[in-house]
Design goal:
Three copies of one chain form a homotrimer.
Chain A lengths: L12 E2 H7 L3 E4 L5 E2 L1 E2 L9 E5 L2 H6 L7 E4 L12 E4 L3 H12 L10 E2 L4 E2 L4 E2 L4 E2 L4 E2 L4 E2 L4 E2 L4 E2 L4 E2 L4 E2 L4 E2 L2 E3 L4 E2 L4 E4 L4 E3 L3 E3 L6 E3 L4 E2 L4 E3 L6 E3 L4 E2 L4 E2 L4 E2 L4 E2 L4 E2 L4 E2 L4 E2 L4 E2 L4 E2 L4 E2 L4 E2 L8 E3 L4 E2 H15 L5
Parallel strand pairs in A: 4-5, 5-6, 6-7, 8-11, 9-12, 10-13, 11-14, 12-15, 13-16, 14-17, 15-18, 16-19, 17-20, 18-21, 19-24, 20-25, 21-26, 24-27, 25-28, 26-29, 27-30, 28-31, 29-32, 30-33, 31-34, 32-35, 33-36, 34-37, 35-38, 37-39
Antiparallel strand pairs in A: 1-3, 2-7, 22-23, 39-40
């Protein structure tokens, strides 16, 4: 159950409404049954809602009236007989939608709330319903759109644009950036730092970087990730990209829409990435390669060459996942001590 | 010698007291001999204390009266004849205890010290002897226990609880978290960010996360590490866990007591880890695996499957370290160019 | 073209001056021709300056009068006939120098600018022309040299020294550190955190760390990187070291001059590194190893043993790059399914 220290009381929802949100079907249970809290399968009690992802999970649900389970068709018959059931093809996603309904986002900001402990440059352009918390620093000519929330300690550099409804979490540092609408930028994120472009000539020099960072709409970035600004042109991140914690995206990268980038991934400079790829945790992509769309890169994959579309890649240097598994098995076999 | 710019003058300690703290034995030297500073073996002079971990280190100690060396039994006879000796099985640990005695922690905070540049919500609950530095932001209903020190720029989110004696270093961002007593949370740490739970259905959605983060007592977290909050239930970290810099711990992970997690490690979602394991630098653990207790994972180990107790694992996918070394050697041999 | 939201208008520069800065030769074009903006090769128009690194790039330049290209000798004849040409051995580096001329660094700070929202300890020592932005926290006895700029939310711990002309970007946390002149410290960087020195004896203890961090001149550190302070002696980073984002440098490391350390690299404790090495992204170096000068470590290299000078190393455990490539090729061959 969501801890009342942190979350408001849930708004109850009927099994009929759950089935509709889930694009699913009520398979068992009284139509007027209400879910009043969410929880894990083994924590279910009367009024509870859970989702079932595995047979093992199904078996932990108590055999109790008044419990509602979101479940895929093939697991429905593993549930105890007393629980109510909504059958849906993707129970976890459906659960997410119901959670959002039961625990709605806080109401939008109604009026400007600027902390007296925040610094706002005289020529910053701030919409009527923006909130800026203490310790934040909004520099010259920055523009904050409608409903933007700048949390404590955030720096918004000169000239930056933050689109409507975007939330910048505490202690993020944003420079040289145009950020779209309804983005969630995590705490401690650094956007717009100088790209790591090194010239060598009897000693290294860090090249000046005169580009910027452009981020689309509904993109989320996890805590302490870093996105550098471009060298001459820009670092560009599309719409609805999901970036986890501690990810590094270098100067001039172009990342399309709908990509999922897991924790501690690194994307090197000037790499171009299409849409809807998944990058597993701790993966890396070399500089100046081109990656298509719809690929899956396993955790730790180290991508050193360009990749087309729809591949599943693994290993370092990354190869098709099947080859990687064959290589692992081959080496294991060859290294096995001979029986005497 | 500890730089007086940063550290107070040492409190002298007698060789007898050193031997007692070290649970060791004075093997050579006058009982009234005092250590007045600490340093590396090759920087020893009259009044100095060092510890000896290797034969090479032993040989760098100057042959000088008034020097005290903490040393393991097997290296005692490598030291020059003039130095005083305390023999102890773990000289480095003993040295740590003596250091703490010579350079005690700063005295506890005696009275409330709240910076006028900090934001404290009206309904935050703050013990009498709490210190909160400038630029910090303490949100609604947050609770700060006795002797808590919130350094500059820290954000403590609504409802968070910080246990007695815990120190939160500068610019950390804490949300949705219950943190125990006597913890040290590093600068720039992000606790309680939204877990990276992705639902897919004609486009990715970042699932709402309604869990929290629970951290036990005496746990330390290094700079810029990230710990996400749980999805439905909680991310839990036990007592006396030691986490280094830039570590990523994902939503719903359960990490037992006494684990040591080195720099840049990543622990994926919903993984369950027992007690007293060691994770070498840049290691990774996949999601939904179960790890027992007392294991050692080498640097860069990539753990993809559940592991029992007391194993030493290495490589990616991780295997017993012996197998990993055999695989490395086998490949090296097979790849060697044939002699003609 | 540099976005006027973020960058001032360029100062025009003549092709003759470009050739001089580039230590190159004007090979084609009127001497009075001026560059008035910079851009990518395919974005060139009258008054534009670009550099040409590849044959492909050369072919994207429009055949247009009034365009100036910096180009290496071997690519000069790939450019269209109307463009003006300056031939130089390292066009990218030359371009960087010209960029710096056309878009000079902002004028040095002329007078002390201390935000009323910054905390400055009474006994901090601050030069006349220092700038300190809102939310910054300058602790006791800290010293800020001439022309230092402390951006918003930065913490400068007690006793720290920041050399002339150094810029500390937003939300960095600096403790126990002596930093040289003309350094650029990135946003969110953590310097001087407690080293991760663990003693084991029936339970782990985090050893007290009484060392500091010393950083030379003209060193740059990327966003959210962490550098721990030493245990007894110091963590030392030389002059003109270039460190990218999310890099972890552990306690007591000694890093010489001119090293280039790419994103997400980890350098473990007490390791000693010479001068002018390059560490590719996500590389790691084990603790207590010694590395000479002029080496190149490929991305993901995991260095487990000491290395001399001038090597090119790759893989984990790292071996000469040639061996690594041979190992990769050998395994690929051995794992290939047999033809039937």
């Amino acid at each position: 159950m969501a801890d009342p220290r942190f979350y408001p009381e849930a708004q109850p929802i009927s099994i009929a409404d759950i089935a509709e949100l889930a694009r699913g079907e009520k398979a068992r249970g009284c139509s007027s049954l209400m879910a009043r809290f969410i929880g894990a399968p083994d924590a279910m009690a009367e009024g509870g809602l859970c989702f079932i992802a595995t047979k093992d999970a199904a078996e932990t649900v108590p055999d109790q009236k008044g419990v509602i389970c979101l479940v895929a068709p093939e697991l429905a018959d593993k549930l105890p007989s007393s629980v109510a059931i909504v059958v849906t093809p993707d129970p976890k996603r459906a659960f997410g939608l119901v959670m959002r309904k039961m625990y709605p986002e806080p109401a939008p900001i109604q009026s400007q709330q600027i902390s007296p402990l925040a610094h706002i440059a005289d020529d910053a352009v701030i919409a009527d319903d923006v909130r800026v918390d203490g310790g934040a620093f909004i520099d010259a000519r920055a523009e904050l759109g409608k409903g933007v929330w700048i949390k404590s300690g955030v720096k918004i550099g000169a000239g930056c644009v933050i689109g409507d409804g975007t939330v910048i979490d505490s202690n993020a540092s944003i420079d040289y950036a145009i950020i779209g609408q309804s983005c969630q930028i995590g705490a401690g994120v650094v956007i717009g730092g100088c790209g790591f472009g090194v010239g060598r000539d009897g000693g290294n020099i860090l090249l000046p970087h005169l580009g910027k960072v452009i981020i689309g709409n509904r993109t989320t970035i996890g805590g302490n990730s870093c996105i550098d600004r471009g060298f001459i042109d820009d670092t560009v991140i599309g719409d609805h990209v999901m970036i986890d914690n501690l990810v590094h995206i270098a100067h001039n990268a172009k990342i399309g829409n709908g990509n999922v980038i897991c924790g501690q991934v690194g994307i090197a400079g000037s790499t171009v990435i299409g849409d809807q790829n998944i990058f597993g945790a701790q993966a890396g992509v070399a500089d100046h390669v081109t990656i298509g769309s719809g690929n899956v890169f396993a955790a730790r994959a180290g991508v050193t060459k360009s990749v087309g579309d729809g591949q599943v890649m693994a290993g370092f240097p990354a190869v098709p996942a099947l080859e990687f598994r064959r290589e692992v098995a081959t080496l294991r076999r060859l290294a096995m001590p001979r029986k005497k």
